Amino acid sequence: MCKNVSEYLAKLKKELGQSVDRALIQDALSDAETHLRNALDEELSKNPDASEAMLLSPLIEKYGTPNEVASAYRTMEPHISPAPARISRPGKRSLLGKFFGVLTESGAWGAFVYLVFAFIPAVIFGGWALFAGLVSASMLVFIIGLPFFGGYLLSLRGIALLEGRIIEALLGVRMPQRPQFFQKSPGWWGKFKALVKDPYSWKALVYFVLLFPLGFIYSAFFSLLFALSLSFALSPVLELVFRIPLDLAGDNVFTPLWLLPFVCLGGLLLLPLTFHLAKLFGRLHGRFAKSMLVRK
Amino acid sequence: MDQENEINKKFQKELNAGTASLVLLSILSRADEPLYGYRIAKLMDSEDEGAPMMKQGALYPVLRSLHSSGLLESYVDPSVSGPPRRYYKITDAGLETLKTWAQIWDQTKTFVDRALKGRHHV
Questions:
Q1: What ipTM is given for this predicted complex?
Q2: Domain boundaries in chain B?
Q3: pTM over 0.95
């Protein structure tokens, strides 16, 4: 018997346990909260004098006990795993196959695309976190700045969800598909206090501030590696057929003929190496994002 | 008695796992407008004259699975009174899949009916 929605959510969280993905927990809690609050609002409009506990009991009976609902989510979770993780399951391969096979893995391509274009979320999300944060924080000296700062912290939750969707699609890390709510606090002051006290508001802020430089570093590093590996691999064609020198030092000198096969081989090795690195960085960044943006 | 209940519950759960997707696609294919989770659950309840076949809480992961398979599309609409609602609409791929699944369901139903009737003649 639960006296209110918050109590039901706490029991559901406990039933889901520590063993399931924390993104799944956020989704399950978000679904339950949306459903039960919608149902409760409807029932309250019909019976305005009834207590929440009295109305909630039949609603939970229909929605399912925390145990039943947790079991349903656990059963369906394998069907909702992130796309690249589902497709990219390399079988048993030789060492050489593993090294070059990375170029055929959708997960590696996803990570590579995320890292090369990381400057875009860095500019939009990181820029917003930094500059809107500075503006709204400076407005805090006036009492009118409070709602602006609250709105800013709330906006970070929205972009955290968006960043999570991008990370799940490209890095294959399970991220929440539903927003996190906070308990129905009375009035905007209660909501503001809940937002400020929530460590995840600050963790999201730190994540997006760090994303600002990180995104540029990722983009520059992986674009450089990709450009180098392609130009090295294609150097015989570029230099001998099209007469375009590699020109790394900017002195317009062609590579000696005896060195060209080695440069080409270097490029052919550097390309899969870039994708292995992209997979590694993608995995690490995914873990970092999950620890900062998803509630435990 | 408890063990019998557990077995029945397990059987019901296994049946629901497959049929929930079909029922949800069917409800959304007949809807004139996109529906959100709670509304879908209410429609399912209204179609179910006896005891509900499945708990409403079990609908949401199924909806998400159908969405991630491209059979449903969705958007979020902020609600004035409560949390934002996610509305679902069936896609063209969903309508095609529903046709195929309905045929598979007909075949399965016929097969099970025959097996159950045949039971008395063994």
A1: 0.80
A2: 2-121
A3: no
